[in-house]
Specification:
By secondary structure, the chain is an all-alpha fold. It has two domains: about 50 residues; about 50 residues. Helix content is about 70%, strand content about 0%. The chain is built from four helices and no strands. α3 packs antiparallel against α4. The longest helix has about 30 residues.
Length: about 120
């Protein structure tokens, strides 16, 4: 039992020595002084505070921007979900034949959207 306690105690002493030795080695290699570490730490904190305040300002600016209202058609659907039949035919035609060859399907889809109450140019 005493042997185990001695081994543990010696291990702790060795660990402390290694920590101190490595710290001293880093201090020597990096020309470290405590004040420079404090200065670096303060710069990091100031940078983080500055970034936080900018983020809060951006959030406040975004809160004042009015979001456009979602337009709902007569069927209770948004424009993206209205007239699925004419949209499908129009999209397939445009993919296969090109937009210039599908003007009748494009116009049919616009007519359908207008009948839902949407303003389509």
């Amino acid at each position: 039992m005493i042997l185990i306690i001695c081994i543990l105690y010696c291990s702790l002493i060795l660990l402390n020595f290694l920590i101190i030795y490595n710290s001293l080695y880093l201090i020597k290699i990096l020309n470290y002084n405590p004040q420079s570490l404090i200065d670096i730490n303060n710069k990091i904190i100031n940078t983080m505070d500055h970034a936080k305040s900018n983020n809060n300002n951006n959030n406040n600016n975004n809160a004042t921007v009015a979001q456009p209202a979602v337009v709902i058609g007569k069927s209770g659907k948004k424009i993206c979900c209205s007239c699925p039949d004419t949209r499908k035919v129009r999209d397939e035609c445009v993919v296969q034949n090109g937009e210039e060859n599908c003007k009748q399907y494009i116009e049919a889809h616009k007519v359908c959207l207008r009948s839902e109450g949407f303003t389509v140019v």
